[in-house]
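hey
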């Protein structure tokens, strides 16, 4: 069974998730949005070694710490293939607060698989074309990025957003997960699939 640590980073309070194996001490970093030093400190406190960076999606608030992390460790970076153009776009910025990232590497095409980690990648477009969620069935946990939050869902009025797609992603993909699955979103507090499914919001 793997473990999770959430590090809240950046001016938009992004939930960066560290997922690590208690025996190997290997870890994934998911959505390193900002404040690389804070993420590095959490990894050190846990005594784990990052082996790859995974993204739920490529928006600037979820990726700003990547260059500094890669200057410390040589890590593969993975996102869905439909997300790469957004990730690497010079327009992927929130000016004047978040300029576009420079020196981002080309993401790897194959998801880096670490021994002892059992999870599935769910393609959940709507907030962005290549948005994904990471479902860890053994831990009854899903990391939903900006697809599903507690009591709401991700914006669809940004470039690449699609209201019909995000509703399909939530109702047909995420709501098909067991009700006691913990929802760990890209911002704010956690929830459960059951709580969101019966909220009447969607």
């Amino acid at each position: 069974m793997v473990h999770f640590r959430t590090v809240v980073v950046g001016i938009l309070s992004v939930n960066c998730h560290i997922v690590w194996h208690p025996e190997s001490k290997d870890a994934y970093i998911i959505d390193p949005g900002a404040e690389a030093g804070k993420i590095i400190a959490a990894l050190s406190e846990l005594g784990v070694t990052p082996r790859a960076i995974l993204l739920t999606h490529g928006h600037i608030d979820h990726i700003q710490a990547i260059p500094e992390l890669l200057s410390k460790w040589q890590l593969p970076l993975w996102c869905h293939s439909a997300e790469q153009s957004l990730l690497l776009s010079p327009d992927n910025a929130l000016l004047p607060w978040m300029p576009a990232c420079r020196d981002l590497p080309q993401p790897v095409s194959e998801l880096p698989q670490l021994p002892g980690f059992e999870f599935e990648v769910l393609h959940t477009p709507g907030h962005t074309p290549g948005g994904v969620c990471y479902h860890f069935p053994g831990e009854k946990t899903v990391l939903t990025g900006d697809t599903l939050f507690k009591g709401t869902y991700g914006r669809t009025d940004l470039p690449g957003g699609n209201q019909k797609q995000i509703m399909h992603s939530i109702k047909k993909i995420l709501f098909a997960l067991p009700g006691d699955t913990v929802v760990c979103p890209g911002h704010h507090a956690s929830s459960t699939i059951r709580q969101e499914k019966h909220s009447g919001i969607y």
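The two ends are 32 Å apart (CA to CA). The first helix runs from residue 36 to 46.
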